Amino acid sequence: IPVKHQSPQVQSAFHRPPVGQKDTGNNNQQRGVALQNLLITQISDHQGAQKPIQNGTIHGYQQLSSNPTVPRSSDSYPSRTLSESNVINGKIRVKMQVIKANTTWHNADIPIIDHPSAFFVCNQDPRVAEQFSILSIEMNNYYNKPVNTSVPLKNPTIGDFCVARFSEDNLWYRARVVLIQEESILIVFIDYGNSESKPGNEIFPMQEILARLPAIAVACTLAESFPRNENFWTSQATQMFSLLVKNRIVEVQFQQGIGQQWPLHFVKVILDGQSIAQHPKLAPYLIPAQNEQIAMHFNDKFTSMEYILYNVAVGESDIYSDTLP
């Protein structure tokens, strides 16, 4: 399904395509009712500068078997128990994941791409998919009852978690408030990484039980890869990266982070047994660079709004830290 976009009003390192640019991936094959993957990292109670971001199609995933397979030992499945509080400062919070270095997701996909230094990765492990499928069914059953949508989210603020329908399939998804405008509220769908503007009366409070699992999409940066001869990634580089990975199952290897210098996860993406950075179609658009150099270049361009857009955890209370069964 093509992704529709909203023009950014504020320039940043992570500008998204303008209105009218289409996602060329065959996403129709990827639709599904179930929300099926794992994770983001996000900021709590953040009231910073505001950067409008794209409207986007929810990228569903193919229905997986109800008989999950046992993953490889190198896969990591963070989770948390219901005994942990989902309420912080009186508000429902969805916790985020910080993936440990040397973790490998052998079955992952990349549903949303801004450019090679900013994209979302979803773990396609069947056990995780099954839990999110159950969560999705519960959420849609609850919010499809008119009595449960009689009162919209009251006094919304930047960073609030909520629930809203996606306009193109009319299903309910978990979301977060990104920008409050005069006649609409921009929300990001936390389990996919894309967003949509909605009237305030179409955004509703999230049930605490729906916060028991973390946000799905993990915001990542292609490790050791810098745009060739450019301060920013060109549209051609982004399109080639997207062409290679969209609607493909890839292996994602999480690299050592560099602390506060860069909030996204550095990853290597393995496609058909080869690092995508060395793929002959993408290699002409990039040059090798240390991750520290990439962080130094982009960090001062990373606005406070991106901390919501890319779901960056800023404290221990934001982090989803247990393990799924």
UniProtKB/TrEMBL annotation:
SUPFAM superfamilies per UniProt: Tudor/PWWP/MBT
Occurrences of domain Tudor (ranges): 155-213
Region Disordered, annotated ranges: 1-28, 63-82
Domain of life: Eukaryota
InterPro entries: SNase_OB-fold_sf, Tudor
Residue spans of biased composition, Polar residues class: 1-12
SMART domains reported for this sequence: TUDOR
PANTHER family named among the record's database cross-references: RING FINGER PROTEIN 17 (PTHR16442:SF1)
The protein, known as: Tudor domain-containing protein
Organism expressing this protein natively: Rotaria magnacalcarata
